[in-house]
UniProtKB/TrEMBL annotation:
It comes from the Bacteria. This is EAL domain-containing protein. It comes from Marinomonas foliarum. Residues 24-278 form the EAL domain. Transmembrane segments: none annotated.
């Protein structure tokens, strides 16, 4: 970078802006074709039960394997897919792929675990979403109790009454519902009680600061206590260190997910990870 005179700063800014706009157009334009050609993969991050450190679940996380740009993270293209409406076919692909993967793992003989899939706002607003999920579960032969949807507070709060109805629709199918990134949105405690959800997933930002900021720790501790008294399961995302793990353990958190255990893995690596972790011991 050139010296940061006011003039140069201006150009640096403009260049970045142009690059961003360019990337936006390129990615957005390629998305439809990418869906047709299935240029996507799912990676799976293990969810670990705190008490015995067993793998009890997996979160499916999408990546775009772009022919020229390589691996693109969901934060870069999910918003584009939302804008264009392409999130609807893409979202259905994710659910089907994740269910098939779960079935494949089961067939290879590992202990049953739960698969979680993220939804985005536009998908959540889709009128026939519950029917679509039911259809895919039937088609792939996945029992609904092994399937979970992750939703965010803002999605649920956009139209709270309609959300409650939709969540009840999912509950009738027998699957479980989780609030993702909990603590970053604006859902009120009054609504938390009304939403038929089973799991709270504490946002990574709170976990990141654990042990570094006593106010933050107090929030995490209180969130876990509140979840427990509402009979919700609590999971912490973004757990990277043993000391974060130990604090969460002390607060009564039930599950963790994060780099301390594993990054998101491709299907094959996940299977290897599971086989190496869930060691069968004989008494
Ligand atoms: P999320 O659902 O909150 O997923 C957690 C993100 O944190 C993932 O990023 C994961 O790789 C990352 N992560 C996990 N453990 C750690 C850790 O210990 N440290 C750090 N620094 N990061 C960690 P990823 O895969 O890039 O996904 C980003 C977001 O994109 C997701 O956030 C989710 O909102 C969205 N997303 C991913 N896949 C899908 C999908 O299939 N459909 C929809 N609608 N959204 C998706
Ligand atoms: Mg998630
Ligand atoms: Mg999250
Ligand atoms: Mg997140």
């Amino acid at each position: 970078r050139a010296k940061s005179t006011g003039h140069n700063m201006y150009f640096v800014y403009e260049n970045n802006m142009a690059e961003n706009i360019d990337a936006h157009l390129t990615l957005g334009g390629g998305l439809r074709k990418a869906i047709e050609e299935e240029q996507f993969v799912l990676h799976y991050q293990p969810k670990i039960r705190l008490c015995d450190e067993e793998v009890v679940g997996a979160e499916a996380l999408i990546r775009w394997v772009h022919p020229e740009l390589g691996m693109i993270s969901p934060d870069q293209f999910i918003p584009l897919a939302e804008e264009s409406g392409l999130i609807l076919p893409l979202g259905e692909w994710v659910i089907r792929r994740a269910c098939r993967q779960l079935k494949e793992w089961r067939e290879s003989g590992v202990a049953p675990i739960k698969m979680s899939v993220n939804l985005s706002s536009r998908q959540f607003m889709q009128a026939d979403l519950v029917d679509m999920v039911e259809r895919v579960l039937q088609e792939t032969g996945v029992e609904p109790e092994y399937f979970e949807l992750e939703l965010t507070e803002s999605m649920l709060m956009a139209d709270a009454q309609q959300s409650i109805d939709k969540l009840h629709g999912f509950r009738k199918l027998g699957l479980t519902l989780s609030i993702d990134d909990f603590g970053t949105g604006y859902s009120s405690l009054a609504y938390l009680k009304k939403f038929p959800i089973q799991t709270l997933k504490i946002d990574r930002s709170f976990i990141n600061d654990l042990g570094l900021d006593s106010d933050n720790d107090a929030i995490v501790k209180a969130t876990i206590a509140m979840a427990k008294s509402l009979n919700l399961k609590v999971i912490a995302e973004g757990v990277e260190t043993r000391s974060q793990f130990d604090l969460l353990d002390g607060y009564g958190c039930q599950e963790v997910q994060g780099y301390l255990f594993s990054k998101p893995l491709c299907g094959e690596d996940f299977l290897r990870y599971m086989s190496s972790q869930n060691v069968v011991t004989f008494a």
